[in-house]
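Amino acids appear as letters; backbone shape is given numerically. Here is one record.
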Amino acid sequence: MLLGVEAAFQQVPGVIDTAVGYSGGETPNPTYKDVCTDETGHAEVVQVKFDPATVSYEQLLDVFWKVHDPTQVNRQGPDFGTQYRTAIFTHSPEQEAVAKKSRAALEASGKLKRPVATEITPAGTSIARKSITRNICRSAAQRAVTSEVESNFRKCEKPSEAARFFACGD
């Protein structure tokens, strides 16, 4: 699931770089094994660095809502545990406000059958890169999301004002 989310963001014009890893926890540089104990407090995330002249934070939030199930609590697909919670880790008060507004709009839209479970909290200072064989899985994940992603991104319009990192849980 995480690689599919990362592949979706990589398809967005204006996304400069992505990194998978963990955020929101207390253990410095946790391993996959550490995080799976459900004791570190970390969530699996995709960190997205983007060019705000090309894509806005709001547009990235739209992608986030579309590429995972924001109503699942501590679960995504067959994976379960707090590390699979849906989360947005913000890097400024402005990002937090925009993310909360976006979440409220999604909740009010009536598109979902359950309440949005996505937490919105300030990001820590860094993300530990997840050590997995990414290149093998990346091509398949990109192919799986390309057609849906391309149609969704045609709706993108406004650039934001400052380049920031966007981290979303998977």
Notes: Confidence is low (pLDDT under 50) at residues 132-170. The two ends are 7 Å apart (CA to CA). The CA atoms of residues 58 and 133 lie 30 Å apart. The first strand starts at residue 15 and ends at 23.
